[in-house]
Amino acid sequence: MKIEKQNKYRNPVVATFTGIREILRKQKPDCFLHDDDRLDGKRVLIDGASSGLGFAVAVEVARRGAKVIMACRSGIPDKGELVKKLSGNNDIHMLPVDFADINSIQNLVSSIRDQYTPIDILICNAAVVPRESRKTKQGLEEMFMVNYLSKFIFLNLLLEKGCFRQSAVGSQHPASRIIIVSSESHRNPEKFDWEGFGKYKNYGIQKTVELYGYYKLMLTTFARELSRRLNPDGKTSISVFSLCPGPINSRIAREAPGIFQPLLSLVFYLFFKSPEKARVPVVYLAASKELEGKLFEYLFLMNRKEISELAADSENGRRLWELSENLIKTISKKQ
């Protein structure tokens, strides 16, 4: 099997220019979000929703009539009030969570189960780009935890607690949708480091972008495997979608060294999409009627695209799932 080798995201400078090239490249979209793609009566849960892409998505899905639950580490209650003001929708709720802490994720799931089920649409958006490696309370590397493992834990707990609306024969409700915000940088790694899975690694800013892409590979592989496991007979119980929204002018690079901040701010402002423009494919996956009954989709901007061969490989999906389960069991025994 031929493995894609791109090296577009090996360091911050190359990654930035890759983002600029992709945003300037003209692509004819094959997906379209329409004004009548409404979300009235739907419960939409969005994590990482207090700023950037997550906040912009929260405003738009609220405008389209959804009951919105914002899971955030900060911004409570101010950002929820701002979503109400900008969207004209008062059915906005906020729950605290720190995706670097397993206990916090467990508490979030309990609150969702008790107050906001069934969830119709989940948008997994929270991510970090740290300047250097940091340990979480459970001794894991923070970017690995927030950008990948927290999603595995969060989604499996929600499923275990019956928090999603699942379609059934004769049901008047369409299947729930799980939308996982990934990145085209998932194509950059040449292989999985199975032996190093979950092990704490020390690194600095030069390694951050490379690891960001690697954890997005894990996330995309997980999304594809999740779809297989939720819909084993080819009939859609819960749809699983993933996407790369393209380079976004957000605060995700706020931990870059101070000397680079003015230049990055200028480049992001001139060339990267605003969160309001970047949210379109996310909202499309949440609201479009065209996607009802779909098992799995991956979008790059507003174009359907195949995920990388590494991410699509079912054996990689199985092994990633198994290693993730074993790591969580090991951590649980230590707590």
- Let me know the CATH homologous superfamily: NAD(P)-binding Rossmann-like Domain
CATH class: Alpha Beta
Structural classification: alpha/beta
Mean of pLDDT = 88
Under CATH, the topology can be stated as: Rossmann fold
Spans of 5+ residues with little confidence (pLDDT < 50)?
1-5
Percent range of helical residues: 40-55%
Q: What's the order of the H and E elements?
A: HEHEHEHEHEHEHHHEEHH
What is the CA-atom radius of gyration, in angstroms? Answer: 19 Å
**Order of strands across the biggest sheet?**
3-2-1-4-5-6-7-8
SS element count, helices: 11
Distance between the termini: 41 Å
Percent of sequence in beta strands: 5-15%
CATH architecture: 3-Layer(aba) Sandwich
Shape: globular
Domain module count: 1
Task: Write down how many β-strands occur, each being a DSSP E stretch of 2 or more residues.
Answer: 8
List keywords for this structure.
single chain; 335 residues; alpha/beta; Rossmann fold
Explain the overall architecture.
This protein is of the alpha/beta class and 335 residues long. The chain has a single domain, classed as Rossmann fold (3-Layer(aba) Sandwich), CATH 3.40.50.720. It has eleven helices and eight strands. It has an eight-stranded mixed sheet with strand order 3-2-1-4-5-6-7-8, with helices on both faces. The termini are far apart. Mean pLDDT is 88; it is low at 1-5.
